[in-house]
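Hi P.,

Sorry for the delay on this. The queue was packed all week, but I finally got your sequence through. Input first:
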Amino acid sequence: MEISTLYERYLACGGVVTTDSRTLKGGELFFALKGENFDGNAYALKALEAGARYAVVSEDSEAARSGRDDVIAVPDTLEALQALARHHRNAVRPEGRRLTVIGLTGTNGKTTTKELIRTVLATRYTLTATEGNLNNDIGVPLTLLKINDATQLAVVEMGANHPDDIAHLVRVCEPDLGLITNVGRAHLLGFGSFEGVKRAKGQLYDWIASHGGEVFLNTDDADLCGMVAERPGLSILPYGLTHAGAGVLPSSPDEPFLRIRMGQRVIKTQLVGAYNAANVMAALAVGARFGVPVADAAAAIAAYVPANNRSQMTRTERNTIIVDAYNANPSSMRAALDNFAAVQAPSKIALLGDMRELGDESLQEHCAIVRKALSADFRPVFVGEEFRKALQELKPDPTPAWFADSAALAAWLKENPVSGAVVLVKGSRGIKMENAIPEL
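Then the structure:
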């Protein structure tokens, strides 16, 4: 089927697309996607019975052989979804001009930075932006398909676990401006090495360079500056603490959240950790590029409350908890530990879960984190098989507390309550460190 014909069907559905038959309300365009553990083609006919107006299915599926007029058969349903999104991205022309898309990726801070940018730009513009962290080969096209005639700017977050992920996603969303938050030692199992991470993330810079766009560059970040230097002629929009003559103010029990002094102005946040300063400066830079007054941007940032276990501080009846348990890799773990070391409190405990997807470098990276944690002024508690291997390798004396998983940690905390402490909770998504929070 021609993309123009598929686009007509999409418009006939009011621009509403779903890939989950359980969410149907009636009139949608249903895409039957395939995954390792599911095949949406098996639910395509049921989706139509439940109210979907059309179903896009694989040519070799039972639904395709049904001969129904409301079944659209294509060679690859994911490729069709992405092609439709790209077509729509270029078809919507607010005020008669090409829609400006800001593409964002990085190892750490993608979602927080995207939310801060969204918050700042929303003071002046109608936005379409990635919801949560739906930043993969399905989430990016679904974000683009939510663009409508009211959209003035789009902010698209792109994640990557493999070398060509960003190269593929930029061809879908065709960004005009790009921002890489940072590059770090994450997903090494997929990228192979830190140089592989830089090559993969740098594909956003490559796209921007070849299409005459601009990139926001944190000039405090030597790795990003090096990546830009490797791409002569790339147009940059510099930002950063040094560039702005700004500095992070010290935190304290009375002022626990990140604050940044810029000249006579103090940018207040509800984020925990100096490592979020780069994310705040990025949002201010994007706001400035689009004419948002600094006062409005600062007010929006001050009002932003993080969610989903990202840089959150909560106070229970017994403890103060710093929750940064959405994900973890060596660079984000080191940043979290450095920030926690700077927290002023008489009793501090760091609950640290495994860092996943580090491949052959996992033992080395976990050993480095164990050494760092044991040399700090807080009590570390380790969780997970990778930290067990690191402790076995290092044989520290005395041996710190270790638990096989977060459920075992939670059970121990229930039997041995912690009170009057500041507690850091940090670990990769798969180890579910948030399981311990109810016992704190």
